Amino acid sequence: MPLTFRSAGATLLAATALTLAACGGDDGNGPGHADHITIADTAYQFVALGQNHLFTARVEDADGGLVRRAVVQWSSSDPAILRVNGDGLATAVGTGTALLTAAAPGVLDTVPVVVMQAPALLTIVFGDRQSSNPGGTLPTPLTVQVTDALHHPIPGVDVSFAAGPEGGSVGSAVVTTGFEGTAGSSFTLGAGTGSYTATASVPGTALTASFTLRTAGPFDLELWWLGPAEPAVQQAFADAEERWEAIITGDLPDDYALISAYSCGVNPDVDRPLDDLLIFVTITPIDGPGGVLGQAGPCYFHEVGGLPAVGSMFFDADDLAGLAQSGQLEAVVLHEMGHVLGFGTHWSTLGLLADPALQGGTDPHFTGALATAEFDAAGGAAYVAGAKVPVEDQYGPGTADGHWRESVFLTELMTGILDFGGTPLSAITLASFADLGYTVDGTQAEPFSLVIPAIQPQGVRRLPLGRDLLRFPPRRLDRRARIQPPYRPPTGH
Ligand SMILES: [Zn+2]
Questions:
Q1: pLDDT tens digits for 7-28?
Q2: CA 332 to ligand 1 centroid distance, Å
Q3: Ligand 1 centroid vs 415 CA: distance in angstroms?
Q4: Does 47 share its domain with 66?
Q5: What is the predicted pLDDT for the residue at 443?
């Protein structure tokens, strides 16, 4: 039994010297000389792209003694599937099978390595919270993405779609995921009104995702309360919400809201599908009783069509109770929601505001053809004092350039001053939303006619809304934000 280096010396230095001496000899099989190498794993399976595993190998001499000085070199038979660095740290970069080799001078060992992607996550990317008419097919296919545990998309996975117990039907019962790991099926609502559900699942796994669908008007305005509110206040908001949903009859393209906290007022992080308009509502002290009652505006716009998708409304806590008591709250809320929908806040972007007062203009006016026609029809044909449709030129930033001109429109809801005793939402205003690109139901307009020249009614209490336009930097949503991009191996090594 030859001496091993372990027993040959009492110190590491001595052991090292002996190992070197043995390696330098000519016998080729002596103690300390590499005789074979063994990778610790006899095989290995990766279940996600980007997954790492540290392989180790042991080089031994003919007697099973560890050859400490042996330099092990690692390699992969297919670097498009498996990469390995000099320390044996391997990374799965593509699906398939590769051989991993550990080599020391004169010896080598290989193990088969399988890289597959096990479905670990099923995420809804489009189509949740949609609505259509009874019996109607939803505008956006129910779409999910299948990814591995490291969020890398998996192509070629069968996804099953099924209607819930409420009825309705899916267009395709089984759809195979494509390059981006997504699969989608159309969905047709049943004849009954109300809520519907549908599920997507990956057979053979516990992965499932549920869609909530419904019959309703196609335009969905959603309020997101950031804090508590009195029931009367909530009711006023719900009434205003219902009103706008009845006025706007066209669905907007589905989108995905991936927006960061405080990017639209005091909102939290948002990471979810969006259809059609989400409004954050904040009730907070602004400037005491009177003054600013509320402020509102859009901050994110739909990628397709460019209409507002996310906005914010702030209401002065010191004014709410008084407004609710006097019955004016719903009118104020309706007015502020109009700003989030784009009234006065989305005009310049679309080139529909001419001669703006805040840029030195003297006769700001809205140039939309539909609103101009309704203005003429309501009595404005006799208006010769300036260009049509006249926009507010007074009261400074926050009011000017974003409301109908009070001196012409008087009681109309979308002037900067609220008139107690009736604030009609006119066909002119509804037409202005059609000019922005909305589909509107003109029959929802309230009776309103212009008197030219206007005569301010006496004895009517008037309430300036006061600097209520919120202007955020306009940003577009990215409807593909939810889709994880295809995996690309890191470069540089
Ligand atoms: Zn306003």
A1: 333 333 333 333 333 333 334 4
A2: 8
A3: 7
A4: yes
A5: 87
339 CA from centroid of ligand 1 (Å): 7
Q: Which of 448, 456, 453 shows the shortest CA–CA distance to 382?
A: 453
Q: How far is the CA of 204 from the centre of ligand 1 (A)?
A: 55
CA of 340 to the centre of ligand 1 (A): 10
Mean pLDDT over each residue of the chain, to the nearest integer: 87
Number of neighbours of residue 398 by Cβ within 10 angstroms: 20
- For ligand 1, the distance from its centroid to the CA atom of residue 25, given in whole angstroms, is 93
Question: Separation of 274 CA from ligand 1 center, angstroms?
Answer: 25
The structural domain count of the chain equals 4
Containing domain of residue 178, as a range? 121-215
CA 489 to ligand 1 center in whole angstroms: 52
Distances, alpha carbon 254 to alpha carbons 18, 125, 129, 178, 376, in Å: 74, 10, 9, 21, 35
pTM, full prediction: 0.61
Whole-number percent of the chain with pLDDT over 90: 59
What's the one-letter identity of residue 191?
A: A
- Tell me the CATH number at 416: 3.90.132.10
State the CATH number of the domain containing residue 71. Answer: 2.60.40.1080
* Spatial distance between the Cα atoms of 175 and 177, rounded to a whole number of angstroms: 6
CA of 416 to the centre of ligand 1 (A): 5
Pair 248, 324 in one domain: yes
Structure tokens at 439: 């589909």
For the segment 327-341, what is each residue's pLDDT rounded down to a tens digit?
888 899 999 999 999
Q: What is the pLDDT of residues 231-269, one digit of tens each?
A: 778 878 878 888 898 899 888 877 888 888 999 988 999
Residue that terminates a domain, selected from 184, 215, 246: 215
